[in-house]
Amino acid sequence: MTTVELRKLELRDLNEVEEIERVSYPTPWSRSMFASELAKPSSLCLGAYDAATGRLVGYLVISRYVDAWHVMNVAVRPDRRRQGIASMLLNRLFDLTSGRSRRGYTLEVRVSNTGAIKLYEQLGFKPRGVRRGYYTDNREDALIMWKDPVQEPAAR
Prior knowledge:
Strand 3 (56-64) and strand 4 form a beta hairpin. Strands 1-2-3-4-5-7-6 form a 7-stranded mixed sheet, with helices on both faces. Helices cover 27% and strands 32% of the residues. The model has no long low-confidence stretch (mean pLDDT 90). The protein is of the alpha+beta class. The chain has a single domain, classed as Aminopeptidase, CATH 3.40.630.30. The chain is built from 4 helices and 7 strands, in the order E-H-H-E-E-E-H-E-H-E-E.
């Protein structure tokens, strides 16, 4: 497995983001949706890049709200899944946002996406409810998951 480097996404990454998005979701985000999130001061957009090739292999988009960080989008290239990339992105997110105004984290995930649900549970997310018919492509329900705020270590 090659080394992965994490950094903020930039507009120049949108072609690769779109490519991953199209193969990852039945109703992919548009280019303008990603560009909008990249431009928002309340959003954090991270990319995972293959260190050898510079190729984008995964990304995460999160938006800050009054009481929570909302994980909006996480995706990894199909040939790079199950290698810990999504976990790396989420853990980096927790590092970058820990201790900031005591905000928790929330997300929605398809109830049928057992692999993602398992990953989120391993990272401390807990099921908190269901949004009936949330997904527009097939009216599938979304599981609402929450994670308590990540606290900075106490000063010694």
